[in-house]
Amino acid sequence: MKRALVSVSDKQNLVPFVKGLVENGFEIISTGGTKRVLDEAGIETIGIEDVTHFPEILDGRVKTLNPYVHGGLLARRDLPEHMATLEKLNITPIDLVCVNLYPFKETIEKPGVELADAIENIDIGGPSMVRSAAKNYHDVTIVVDQADYDEVLAQIKEDGETSLATRALLAAKAFRHTAAYDSLISQYLTKQTGLEDPEKLTLSWDLKETMRYGENSHQKAWLYEDALPKAFSVLQAKQLHGKKLSYNNIKDADEALRCIREFDEPTVVAMKHMNPCGIGRGDSLVQAWDRAYEADPVSIFGGVIALNRQVDLATAEKMHKIFLEIVIAPGFDDDAFELLAKKKNIRLLSLDFSKKDEPTKHEVVSVMGGMLLQEQDTLKEDYHDWQCVTEKQPTEEQLKTLMFAWKAVKHAKSNAIVLANDERTLGVGEGQPNRIDSLKIAVKHAGEAIDDRTVMASDAFFPFGDCVEYAGQNGIKAIVQPGGSIRDQESIEMANKYGIAMVTTGIRHFRH
Predict the structure, then answer these.
(1) Would the pTM of this model clear 0.85, i.e. be above it?
(2) 218-231 burial, b for 16+ CB within 10 Å, e for fewer?
(3) 241 tagged catalytic
């Protein structure tokens, strides 16, 4: 008779699977809570103590770490000396292992979890059995995922055993399972120690979706989510309407969310190819929409829209008039949703914006042969901390407008320039190899909208005085920039020449 060892934390669908094993000639070894569930279901089981000839000890910390278990798992059936050793020591081979692990992830996701609770949910015996069975997959079937129960049973019913190809696939999954489990443990314990640059970086990601294609149609792509999901993320948004999100949709929506979380007043962000083409704010959402649309009515076509208030009918009626790829907001009034959903190609997503300020400390960027890890640029700034470096002092209203422009420029690609008034962005210049070209683009977009309220934000310092001169020639009244150039004085003198108020932040916001 074949023998299966079953010990699981997640007992969903377990009983039908084990009944199927018994019906196909397996005897069942089990432990603890799993054994109780199977016994209550009327399935005869062998207690782990009857196999190991040793009681569970240390509050269950040690029960399967035993040669009678691991010898039965690791013995190669094709080696006579291995089988002779089993016979000599009265060890029965184990042919199938069904194990999933202590709920470490679920434990550390609980608010206020104590370190002691996390430690007690680090499984030791489970991963050991999984690894032993997976190493010997030529002879042993390892099952760590209930999604595989039906296929394993079907093959056993058909052929009396699983195929070698199936066992190889299951073994690879088993090692992924334990690797991801250990990764979460290492991340958690490393965080507890406060170490920021461990010699090994262990990350765990779960496949969320196989994409139709990547950035271009000839590229394959997959969407993975952090094993500890972040609440304020496009991956946690609920899609209410429309086609599945594409690779580019997800990147644009992510950038739109990064930008919209900067603002507390009713705000609309229009994102296009990961660059803001319009940001508007107002006393109402529809007013904010009008201003975002006015910022660049050409580029917004086919854009991704993020709104930080529930979408009402008045705003929906405005958005309904043009083609938009995605609208993401805290929610939609029923009549607003009904109207927008008439367009089959628009994607409507809702997301809990109350989580927008929860810490999302790190971000990962791939490079050929490696990756970069950095803190996200979520710095909260106060314009009262800025330094005025010019003869002309900014007014309080100008400082508030400069802060609006400063928040916007953080999300435009460097070299980034944003022109804005107290209502909206007027022109955005971004992604140019030099700053003066970005400024010229921003001025061109702003056009006749430039007036006495117009301010300028630059994501990094001015290397020369030319940008300040061009700004002065085109009616800019106040500038915010990091400062720190060896030629800062040139820019300061140019600002004084044109009567511009200029403040420096001491902080730059490159976004590559």
Answers:
(1) yes
(2) eeebeeeebbeeee
(3) no
